[in-house]
Design a protein that fits this description.
alpha+beta; 332 residues; 2 domains; elongated; 4 helices
Length: 332
């Protein structure tokens, strides 16, 4: 009986030992990926802020600016790109929608972001764009790779349509999570006008070519990133935009007219939701990558040791058994 039990335990030990590396190096790379149908909405605020009054062409202080950012997975388009790319691809259609204190639209900038579902590397395909302009991204945007490393990355800036280093500053503790803190500063750069302007009938081409006014932008971007999932648990920007030169800024000091200034932060309720979501996804990734493989390896070792112990006891019992006495057979 003991011998049969030891064989069963040994078989289970072999199964666990074989499954541990299989889960870590085969299942994890295939299962840890961004779902193609993901939908996410985040609300950020700058309170207070400075906003241009297009009626008087004067900047004024306002109590709050609201920015609604949505990310929606385009499943149909991702399948089309996967057919030619030969790998799992995610297509995000995103929208950054800025709302003034009166509830009216200040600006809106749509994007299409195409990237590898496992590595977050950009995938260059037709339709990759910012506000309808074709772009070719380098580096990451919105999300960092799984198991983010403590180093600098290239991060794509949608306003300038270029990529620049985002610098690793150091580890931080944020709402109970161990995270990596990153910073990126975009210096004053001339950027395109949004195609959708807050006043009907104003065409961006008319402002720049007809009125001779250009739009400039700078920001300090900050991310607190969960290193396991690569997802930011918090993001902030110290953001400034100006109109320079031409007729619109002719009467402004130095011909620089403030369009928007403010410290943009995630709204408290969305911050809590984001932290909870990242913490849950972090556990799932760690189960595939670390907890299950190590647990299976440990169980395999324990089961193997138990099987060998049972086998040794079985053999010892046979050796220690007293010899049987010969059976006397009466002579006929």
């Amino acid at each position: 009986m003991r011998r049969r039990a030891s064989l069963v335990l040994l078989a289970l030990a072999v199964f666990c030992a074989a499954l541990a590396p299989l889960m870590r190096w085969y299942m994890y790379p295939r299962l840890a990926k961004i779902p193609a149908n993901q939908y996410q909405e985040t609300v950020l605020e700058a309170a207070p802020a400075t906003l241009l009054d297009y009626g008087t062409l004067q900047p004024k202080k306002v109590p709050r600016i609201t920015i609604v950012q949505t990310l929606k997975g385009n499943v149909e388009r991702s399948r089309e790109i996967e057919a030619s790319a030969g790998r799992d691809v995610v297509v995000w259609d995103s929208l950054s929608y800025v709302i003034g204190p009166d509830g009216k639209m200040v600006s809106q900038v749509p994007e299409r972001y195409v990237f590898d579902a496992h590595t977050q590397d950009p995938v260059h395909a037709t339709g990759e764009s910012v506000d309808g302009d074709p772009v070719r991204r380098e580096g990451v945007e919105f999300k960092f790779p799984f198991f983010t490393e403590p180093r600098d990355y290239l991060y794509f800036d949608a306003q300038t349509r270029t990529s620049a280093p985002i610098h690793y500053v150091g580890p931080r503790r944020f709402h109970g999570l161990d995270v990596y803190y990153f910073e990126q500063t975009i210096p004053w750069t001339k950027v395109p006008f949004p195609k959708k302007m807050p006043i009907e009938g104003i065409d961006p081409a008319t402002i720049e070519s007809g009125l001779g006014t250009s739009r400039w932008y700078t920001t300090k971007r900050m991310f607190w990133v969960d290193p396991v999932t690569g997802a930011p648990v918090n993001g902030e920007e110290i953001h400034s935009e100006e109109l320079r030169g031409g007729q619109l800024a002719a009467n402004a000091p130095g011909q620089r007219l403030v369009v928007f200034q403010g410290h943009v932060k995630m709204r408290a309720d969305y911050l809590k939701h984001t932290v909870d979501l990242v913490a849950a996804n972090r556990t799932k990734v760690l189960v595939l990558h670390t907890y299950a493989p190590i647990g299976l390896a440990v169980w395999g070792g324990l089961l193997c040791a138990l099987a060998l112990w049972l086998e040794a006891r079985t053999r010892r019992g046979r050796t220690d058994a007293p010899p049987r006495e010969p059976i006397a057979v009466a002579a006929a």
